[in-house]
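Model it.
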Amino acid sequence: MNTDVLWPELDEAEWQVLRIQTKLHQWATDDPGRRFDDLFNLVTDPAVLVVAWARVRGNRGKRSAGVDRVKPESIFAAAEWFLPALREDLKARLFTPMPVRERMIPKPGSTKRRRLGIPTARDRTVQAALKLVLEPIFEADFKPCSYGFRPRRRAHDAIAETHQFASRSYEWVLEGDIEACFDMIDHTALMDRVRRRVGDKRVVGLVKAFLRSGILGEDGQLRNTTTGTPQGGILSPLLANVALSVLDEHFAEAWQAAGATSYQRFKRRQQGHATYRLVRYADDFVVMVAGTKAHAADLREEVAAVLAPMGLRLSEAKTKVCHIDEGFDFLGFRIQRRRKRGTAKRVVYTYPSKKALASIVDRVRALTRRSSHPTLAALLRQLNPVLRGWCAYFRYGVSKATFGYLDQYTWHRVVRWIRKRHNRTKWAVLLRRYLPGWRPTEDDVTLFQPQTVTVSRYRYRANNIATPWASRTPAPIA
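Modeled.
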């Protein structure tokens, strides 16, 4: 093992990695046809590995072990033995990814379960290093209509863009649902897209090895992975975006063909044609159509044809066409045009969907079961972050009435929990002990009040979302 390598501190490593990423991104932006040939040395750079390990050790997955049963949180002094050994194996071409450990978890808002693949700590670190090097390159090619798993972009940007188009004549909507997207991506087609930018065969080989590493199922059976990129891996979201960018590129070309100005697009519609805009968040997407229902329906086959070479297909049951007046669900929100109260004007509103409300109600119900927690304070410490996080997500919409309902429902569930846990105690005593000011409280922990959350409209940022590598010369550490 080479012990002469200097392993930088995290702050210095992050600055060095930022400089590397900024250069890669600028080179990729300046030359869209450039293939990068010497990336493996960057993947094995000590600074990159230090930052990669910090991200593995710093997320919630640090408590989960892979097939080797080693949790990242149990690894200490990584720069003394773990990272040097990993770097030596990579440089000697001895590193081989291990199968991911399968974990079936409930699918949000459904009774179905989805597969989560948990890589080992070593594999996660290498994946994180690959992502640090590859992400700035592919970000130069990704289109503005894509928002999922990309730096400085979020679901609210996708909702704001959908609202923007729906308010400006894009009244027909194709709701797209890709069937088992992460499990069905064709490896050959995906690697072809990776090779457009990456010429380093060692890096390409690492990516391919992760795709084909296999899955150790909950039943103990080892299965090969001939398609797909298992959810749970650090590299998987980036690879999924590389695959799904075929859809972004197709609609970007169609938009450019429709004309550069709003007048040209208006004239096109006057001639009986339609214009389309895609809004995608990972594998969830909608196509906004300024035209007729027939135009939107025709897009279904067009989208299916674009996705087919990647091994992906649309769900027959969930892919449908609707009008903005009917409304549709997207990323937890219900987007629908309604008459504005007190006027004849029709306005597009975004508010929490029934499915999203049902999910938080189910979560509150599960947390407030009688035997769930030993004390009221323990219950509130579990419940408050759930309520606060849900309200923080949905505060960018017409959510005040929903927050009021959730507040009332949660209050009644908690009070019911108190009365059941202390069924022999008089109500007056419970009121004095646990409900000062009619808010459940214990040990200075008070039930969070959803109805006090301020709601507002999210600021639409359009194409003005800069990457973290926009600056050509990052400032040095102070």
